[in-house]
Write a structure and sequence with these properties.
heterodimer; A: 6 helices; 0% strand; B: 2 domains; disordered C terminus
Chain lengths: 106, 244
């Protein structure tokens, strides 16, 4: 794999998402429908990454209590919903995940 | 430049760093694990470090490491990176009105350093207190430089650990990503269109997980966005007000 090409490409597309709108918005207004649709990008992308990681950690669907990712994910969702605190969510769900994994011997 | 002005800049810079502290702590496991996973996945140590230095996008880097391990072609990794980072368009559009007084040369580093974390901290400050435009730059820089320095250090620690310890990838520390993203997503679900967006995206991602090259991720995100936006149009045209 050509690492320079890969990293250069990733850097370019990432910068293309971050900089142009910041620089041009003073003189260029984003169309309202586009702006409204963009608000759904973060939840859509993050859920699309997270849900398979939790439900199918080994590639196949695993809805068993022995799936520590599922248990940890449920704990994370519950803590986040109750507290809205990111750091607390990370710490408690990480502990739940590692503890559960040790317990069920995964 | 008066002495008072430079003292005020510095203290604003420090305030930005201080307000970012909890999010920096959250990024620590994330960065260490990225470094360890990247070298385990087959990236060279220099490549892993270079990715953190030049791309500086945690979730995209995490996913890229996973795709490299699966031997996915670079073109698809770049495309996935773009989709995953598209949310920054929203962030920059939301920040631009507060930063438009700045010279263009400053917007380059600010754009490069834009992350979920720095966006979350700066927009809260700007929306809360718009009366100090001359110091917005310094608040942003304090947050961004802190995030950037921490990310580099954590990546480096992860790379070293990944090379020394054989089975870091099997520790299950990749759960840190799940924990972080869940903590970001759940507070975003404030109305029915957002919930519909999340449900459609999640269900599609599971059903389409078998598609090659991580195309399932893109399909799920696209359908989720479309469903959420369609739901918003339908619900608001039906006379129902939903807070955004």
């Amino acid at each position: 794999m050509n690492e320079v090409l890969l990293i250069g490409g990733m850097a370019a597309v990432t910068f293309a998402a971050r900089y142009p709108v910041l620089a041009l918005l003073g003189r260029l207004k984003l169309p309202d429908p586009l702006f409204r649709a963009l608000r759904y990008v973060p939840p859509a992308v993050l859920v699309a990454i997270t849900v398979p990681a939790v439900l199918m950690p080994d590639g196949g669907l695993s809805l068993s209590y022995t799936n520590a990712y599922l248990i940890g994910g449920l704990v994370a969702a519950a803590v986040s919903w109750r507290s809205k605190n990111l750091l607390l969510t990370i710490i408690i769900s990480m502990a739940a995940f590692l503890g559960w994994r040790a317990l069920v011997g995964g | 430049m008066g002495k008072e002005a430079s003292v005020a800049r510095w203290s604003t810079f420090l305030a930005g760093a201080k307000d970012t502290f909890p999010l920096v702590v959250g990024a620590i496991p994330f960065g260490v694990i990225f470094g360890a996973l990247a070298v385990t996945a087959g990236l060279s140590p220099a490549g892993a470090m270079g990715m953190s230095l030049f791309v500086f996008a945690g979730s995209a880097q995490f996913i890229a490491a996973g795709l490299i391990a699966q031997g996915i072609a670079p073109m698809f990794i770049v495309l996935t990176t773009f989709i995953v980072n598209l949310r920054h368009v929203l962030y920059s559009a939301s920040l631009a009105p507060y930063l438009k007084h700045l010279p263009r040369k400053w917007l380059l580093p600010l754009g490069f350093w834009l992350t979920d974390e720095t966006y979350a901290v700066t927009i809260r400050r700007y929306q809360g207190d718009g009366g100090e435009a001359s110091y917005r730059l310094w608040y942003y820089l304090g947050s961004a430089v802190f995030m950037y320095a921490n990310w580099q250090l954590c990546t480096l620690i992860g790379i070293v650990a990944g090379q020394r310890l054989q089975n870091v990838a099997e520790w299950g520390l990749d759960f840190a990503m799940v924990a972080t993203f869940t903590g970001i997503v759940v507070p975003l679900i404030v109305n029915r269109p957002m919930l519909i967006c999340a449900l459609v995206s999640g269900v599609t991602a599971v059903l389409a997980n078998g598609l090659p090259n991580r195309l399932g991720l893109m399909l799920a995100a696209s359908l989720g966005i479309a469903a959420g936006y369609a739901a918003e149009l339908l619900l608001t045209s039906g006379g129902e007000e939903e807070g955004a």
